[in-house]
Amino acid sequence: MAAAGRQTGSLARRPCALRARAASKVRYTRARASLAALGALACTAAAWSGAACAGNFIGFSQPGIPGTFGVLLFPTYSHSAPNINTGKMFTEFAYFSKSGFTGTTRDQFETWLGFYSGVQTTAKGSDDAAFGVSTPELGLEYYYHVVESADNSFGTDAFRSWWISPMLIFNAPNGSNKTSGFGAGANQWSISASVNNYFGYGRWHATVAPIAGVYLFHNYNLTQLPSGDGVRMRGGLSLSLFDIAAGYQFIPNLLAGIHHVYNIYNIGGSDYQRATEGMIGPTFTYLGFAAQSCFISGTLDVDYHHQGVPRSVSVNFSLVKNF
Fold it and tell me: Under a CB-based contact definition with an 8 Å cutoff, are residues 89 and 72 in contact?
């Protein structure tokens, strides 16, 4: 494939944002009546280590430069009502295969290792550290080029492209027994999956994940019930719907538009009450450093709906570099 057609290719993928958000919302939402544990409620406000977090960016769901390694950084700052502030970074080390099942650049595999690190407001009077590490991650994504322009004319009205990329992620417990600060409540295994798509039509570009899911298993830490008994709470299934970043290529190096995602937490198999939120805001992708295999994207997400979780706003960035 010609270089012009792969200008946004090395943007690669999104991090498992739903996994980080779900772990936080699980700790925020109240337990079911049968498990109405005071201990589970004690860390509600501090539970937002992964609260608002980046989803898709314009151009994601395309492969990386074949046969290269990549470093992907996803810094985020978020504020949740009334006074919880979180600064975090997802760091990913990836490898992009030379080809996939076809033996050509029409498809590709990406494998990666990653983790979150960050700081977050701790509960009043708590001795917990604000800094922490969360969700060590192992991931695999497969990219397949369904539709390709005959002349591969990225940046022109003739451009046509469709990439599809199913993804599977495993996250390990972080070993923390904190009740507040970054990384609290993330001491469990989880698995997540999604199918992402990139569509290019002329100068219009969109990355769309219709649905993504994450399942959080029992937390290794015990939650104390009013009776004095300890229970290992389970996060269960959470879903992310219509995670869409779409926009227009206003100038050769700038794509700008809007991002949207709707999250449903604790929808099944969970010891916590269901909660929902919708996030929306402007997004951009900058290609001015594409010649150096470096790509920058960002979003500003504000919730237009929240039920069972506090109001939140976040600023999210993606920094990708291939070697």
Answer: no
Cα 321 from Cα 96, distance rounded (Å): 12
Range 4-322 has CATH code 3.40.50.970: no
Tell me the mean pLDDT in the region 182-192: 93
Residue 199 CB-half CA count within 13 A? 9
Q: Does residue 266 contact residue 274 with C-beta atoms inside 8 Å?
A: yes
CA distance 255 to 12: 16
The pLDDT of residue 35 is 30
In total, the chain counts a number of residues equal to 323
Does residue 248 contact residue 256 with C-beta atoms inside 8 Å?
yes
Whether omega before 82 lies within 30 degrees of 0, making that bond cis, reads yes
Q: Which two tokens stand for residue 174?
A: 């972080």
Q: How far is CA 192 from CA 15, 40, 139, 140, 214, in A?
A: 11, 24, 9, 11, 4
User: What span, in angstroms and rounded, lies between the C-alpha atoms of 262 and 223?
Assistant: 29
**285, two tokens:** 């992708």
What the block records as the tokens of 5 is 């057609």
Residues whose CB is less than 8 angstroms from the CB of residue 235 and which lie 6 or more positions away in sequence, other chains included: 22, 23, 26, 188, 190, 215, 216, 217, 219, 266, 270, 271, 272
CA dihedral 133, 293, 200, 112 (to 10 degrees): -30
pLDDT at 36: 28
For the chain, give every domain's residue range.
4-322
- Residue 271, judged by CB atoms within 10 A of its CB (0-12, 13-18, 19+), counts as buried
SS3 23: helix
Instruction: Give the model confidence (pLDDT) of 280-293 as tens digits.
Output: 999 999 999 999 99
